[in-house]
Amino acid sequence: MPEIGKIVSPQTLRLQHETTAKGENFRSEFEEILREEYKSAPQVQFSRHAVQRMEQRGVEMTGKNLNELSQAVEKARQKGARDTVVIGKQGAFIVNVPNNIVITTITEQEMRQNIFTNIDSAVFM
Predict the structure, then answer these.
(1) Which of 7, 86, 87, 114 has a CA-to-CA distance to 65 between 20 and 30 Å?
(2) Does residue 94 sit within a domain?
(3) Range(s) of the domain holding residue 35
(4) Which run of H or E residues covers position 105?
């Protein structure tokens, strides 16, 4: 079972189910949790590359941060953005807006040494 207050993706719940499911009661409980997690899951997804960069760079996402990122992406969408950089306290996230996918992320320190290319907008969180 996931810890209370911990962000759990539907994919994680499915993996837990496949490796530990025993009995019909557990299955129905799992299905209910999966449905709730899926409904509350943010629209923004992370590419494999972005997840690797976050792990390498020690960028942590909390529920609040993820919500702020989703809101920033939605603002960019409303303005017609396609590829945007979302800049916040954790660093910068390059997001493909139409697909709701974070392509990569960099830390605040790395932002000072880089140039962002192939973006059409910037949103500050």
Answers:
(1) 114
(2) yes
(3) 10-40
(4) strand 101-106
